[in-house]
Design a protein that fits this description.
- With about 325 residues, this protein is mainly alpha-helical.
- The protein folds into two domains: about 150 residues, CBS-domain (Roll), CATH 3.10.580.10; about 170 residues, Orthogonal Bundle (Tetracycline Repressor, domain 2).
- It contains twelve helices and six strands.
- It has a three-stranded mixed β-sheet. A three-stranded mixed β-sheet has the order 4-5-6.
- Strand 4, helix 4 and strand 5 form a beta-alpha-beta unit.
- It is elongated, with a radius of gyration of 29 Å.
- The protein starts with about 25 loop residues before the first strand and ends with a helix.
Length: about 325
């Protein structure tokens, strides 16, 4: 799925792209009268919402198609409508409208003039190179996510804007690196005694970061497909903990075997292997937890989870690795 934003000037006004509305309903009508009137019209556009207007064509409300079709024939359309419709003014730009789609996740918006009169509508197909099947929820979710990214890209028109978008998250990595350096400084004695420990720090960090990112990706996928709940969280963490333990044991044995070839003895190699197992279990658990925690805190896990997880995993892994070595070797 793709957007056609690169082919259209997003600074152009919405009025240049407004489609005529053939699904407007008069406020004084009943549902039965409205449906009878609609059947006489030659509707040439996709029907997503019905718009209720007064006798001066001012927008009063919106009715979803399903709600209108299932309503009682003698019920008034004003009783059925959403009386606080979200609309777009015809002076707004395509970029403004794109942000409205990404923010509210509606399939179409009514377009009104400065007097609140309905002049037409625009739907999500305006921003795509292909028609969207409104019955496919995953396709809609993908489209709205693309629009959200498109809004950010449209605003990222200068180096400073790009800097402000990226730098806050890079601060997480800087903070994590500084914390790891401080932790390593606390264990200078064991690092000086067993140089092999320092040689394997990059490998230990790489393995922990990799399994945390894998666990995070799985949790994000699950978060998109179902509600976040404590029961789901517990089941997900339990599964990831067991998986991380199996992967950690396998990686720990392989790395410990490799470490024996450096001539530092089986004890040092065993400590490195055991540290990898412990750190990978912790990293996998953190990676599985973080998207759910951020979601429950009303933060966007797709944006914040990666930098936050990597920072915490790096610090935790460094602490576990060096603390275990210090305890067993000194």
């Amino acid at each position: 799925m793709s957007t056609n934003k690169g082919q259209t000037d997003l600074s152009r006004p919405v009025r240049d792209f407004v489609l005529p509305v053939e699904t407007s309903l008069l406020a004084g009508q009943t549902i039965g009268q409205s449906l009878a009137a609609i059947r006489t019209r030659n509707i040439g556009h996709k029907v997503i919402y019905f718009y209720v207007v007064d006798d001066q064509n001012r927008l009063l409300g919106v009715i979803p198609t399903r709600k209108l079709l299932l309503g009682k024939p003698d019920e008034s359309v004003t009783a059925l409508m959403d009386s606080n419709p979200i609309s777009i003014t015809d002076t707004m730009t395509l970029e403004d409208a794109m942000e409205m789609f990404a923010m509210h996740r509606l399939l179409a918006f009514p377009v009104v003039d400065d007097d609140g009169k309905l002049v037409g509508h625009i739907d999500i197909d305006l921003y795509t190179d292909e028609a969207i099947d409104v019955s496919e929820s995953h396709q809609l979710a993908e489209m709205f996510q693309l629009l959200g990214v498109s809004v950010q890209q449209a605003r990222r028109s200068s180096p400073w804007a790009g800097y402000m978008l990226r730098m806050p998250w890079l601060l997480c990595n800087i903070a994590g690196g500084v914390a790891c350096a401080i932790i390593a400084g606390l264990f200078q004695a064991v690092l000086a005694k067993v140089l092999l420990l320092a040689m394997f720090i990059p490998l230990v960090l790489t393995l922990s970061e990799s399994i945390s990112m894998q666990a995070m990706a799985m949790s994000l996928q699950q978060l998109r497909s179902m509600r976040a709940a404590w029961k789901i969280l517990a089941r997900r963490v339990s599964t990831e903990w067991k998986t991380a333990a199996l992967v950690g044991i396998s990686c720990g044995l392989l790395v410990a075997l490799a470490a024996t070839f450096f001539g530092q003895g089986a004890a040092t190699a065993g400590i490195i292997g055991a540290s990898i197992v412990a750190s990978m279990v912790v990293a996998g658990t953190l990676g599985a937890n973080m998207p759910f925690i951020l979601h429950m805190l009303k933060l966007d896990p797709k944006v914040a989870a990666g930098p936050v997880v990597l920072m915490i995993v790096d610090v935790a892994t460094t602490a576990i690795y060096l603390a275990l070595a210090n305890f067993l070797l000194l």
